[in-house]
């Protein structure tokens, strides 16, 4: 039997040499070291995928084979179609906005001395779990301005530029002198002459809501030298009961700050506000009707319904961006550090302004990094579940529904149909696979350059 000669090829009949890796290690050793990872990969990825595909072809109780009926139910169910629409919004909006903000933060923080501290603040939300972030933003979006930070800011800005109502839900006594006059205002039925004291009693206000109100002063004591029309606006309710309707009784509270207008021939000829004791004086002559405009009684501005059916999805996307903009910023900043400064300086020397340097040089050079960030976030938002489940209240959860949440609800919630849930899981996998393939192809193309 021939053998191989030194420095030559193996002679016919000689046994083949064992295959070795680049480092000279036999292939079976490499496979042995990879075996634990392959077992875990099979148990945690391959088996669940295979089981989900198989389970999606069976009925809810897995008793009989239903072919593709579960997939038909997925594409005809209103909640699932809403989830698909919301997932599309998530994929388009959230990665784009987060990547854009990350790019802006990364570029701007290069020019300031406290850039590192700023990056730390922006990246800190990444250390918070989705559960904790969901709880935080559920409180941020509370409708009550005394609890929700977002509405506290909105209401504060609104009340700065718009006049707040004095006594919302207040109204005159039935069959009294005041009657509705349109638009939420109340006007006296009869005209009042100058120097005539007018009693304008109101009800519908809880006495406990007026803790600092002074006792009301009877209108006959509110005259000022016999000039103009005078009167009193007060809460016509005596704590403990008793008293006479339409008259100021001891213990009844004054309503200060109520706007009172004198109307003559359909035009406002004078206006004032009540004093601390509820009295007012209008400098006008002739018979006039007194009107309490609607601004006194309008409901106070309560802010934006962040978690209502129209804004719940954008609100949750805002919470996601708060968490993940720091991730995008860090990756883009790392890519920005590798951009040749000579190109940027050469462009500035040639007369390019900062916007042209940014748009024509910085962004094109960062394109590979931006694609990595964008694709990573797209894959991430396709699987979003925690934030939607925690932030969206039960009344609008259907409006904020996404595929991962619908999968959970169908499999373990009220649906209790793991066949349909598995079909949604397969659909979600099919949506993620193209993005993953694109990412793999791009990475291989980059490696060949």
UniProtKB/TrEMBL annotation:
Assigned keywords, A-Z: Cell membrane, Membrane, Transmembrane, Transmembrane helix, Transport
Residue ranges occupied by any ABC transmembrane type-1 domain in the UniProt entry: 84-439
GO biological processes: transmembrane transport
Membrane topology according to the record: Multi-pass membrane protein
Pfam families linked: BPD_transp_1
Protein's UniProt name: ABC transporter permease
Intracellular or extracellular location(s): Cell membrane
Recorded GO CC terms: plasma membrane
Membrane spanning stretches: 28-49, 88-108, 120-141, 315-336, 357-379, 420-441
Primary site of residence: membrane
Source species, domain of life: Bacteria
Family in the record: Belongs to the binding-protein-dependent transport system permease family.
Provenance organism: Wenjunlia tyrosinilytica
Family annotation (PROSITE patterns): ABC_TM1
């Amino acid at each position: 039997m021939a053998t191989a000669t030194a420095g030559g090829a193996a002679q016919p009949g000689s046994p083949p040499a064992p295959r070795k890796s680049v480092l000279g290690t036999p292939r079976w050793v490499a496979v042995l070291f990879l075996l634990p990872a392959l077992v875990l990969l099979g148990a945690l990825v391959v088996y669940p995928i295979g089981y989900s595909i198989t389970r999606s072809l069976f009925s809810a109780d897995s008793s009989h084979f239903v072919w593709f009926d579960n997939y038909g139910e997925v594409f005809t169910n209103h909640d699932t179609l809403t989830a698909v629409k919301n997932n599309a919004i998530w994929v388009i909006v959230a990665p784009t906005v987060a990547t854009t903000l990350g790019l802006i933060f990364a570029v701007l923080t290069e020019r300031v001395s406290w850039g590192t501290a700023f990056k730390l603040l922006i990246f800190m939300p990444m250390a918070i779990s989705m559960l904790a972030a969901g709880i935080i933003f559920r409180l941020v979006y509370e409708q009550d301005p005394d609890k929700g930070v977002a509405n506290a800011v909105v209401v504060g800005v609104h009340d700065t530029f718009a006049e707040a109502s004095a006594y919302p839900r207040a109204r005159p006594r039935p069959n009294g002198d005041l009657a509705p006059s349109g638009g939420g205002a109340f006007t006296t039925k009869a005209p009042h002459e100058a120097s005539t004291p007018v009693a304008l009693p109101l009800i519908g206000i809880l006495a406990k809501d007026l803790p600092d109100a002074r006792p009301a002063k009877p209108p006959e004591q509110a005259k000022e030298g016999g000039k103009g029309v005078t009167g009193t606006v007060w809460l016509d309710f005596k704590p403990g009961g008793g008293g006479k309707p339409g008259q100021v009784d001891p213990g009844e509270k004054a309503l200060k700050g109520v706007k009172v207008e004198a109307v003559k021939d359909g035009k406002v000829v004078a206006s004032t506000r009540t004093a601390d004791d509820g009295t007012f004086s209008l400098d006008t002559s002739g018979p006039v009707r007194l009107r309490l405009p609607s601004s006194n009684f309008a409901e106070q501005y309560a802010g934006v319904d962040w978690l209502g059916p129209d804004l719940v999805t954008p609100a949750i996307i805002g919470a996601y961006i708060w968490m993940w903009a720091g991730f995008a910023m860090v990756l883009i900043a790392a890519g920005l550090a590798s951009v040749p400064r000579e190109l940027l300086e050469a462009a500035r020397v040639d007369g390019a302004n900062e916007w042209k340097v940014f748009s024509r040089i910085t962004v094109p050079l960062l394109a590979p990094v931006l694609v990595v960030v964008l694709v990573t976030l797209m894959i991430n938002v396709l699987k979003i579940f925690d934030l939607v489940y925690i932030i969206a209240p039960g009344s609008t959860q259907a409006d904020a529904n996404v595929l991962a949440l619908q999968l959970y609800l169908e499999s373990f919630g009220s649906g209790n149909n793991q066949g349909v849930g598995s079909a949604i899981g397969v659909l979600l996998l099919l949506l993620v696979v193209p993005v993953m393939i694109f990412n793999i192809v791009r990475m291989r193309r980059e490696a060949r350059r």
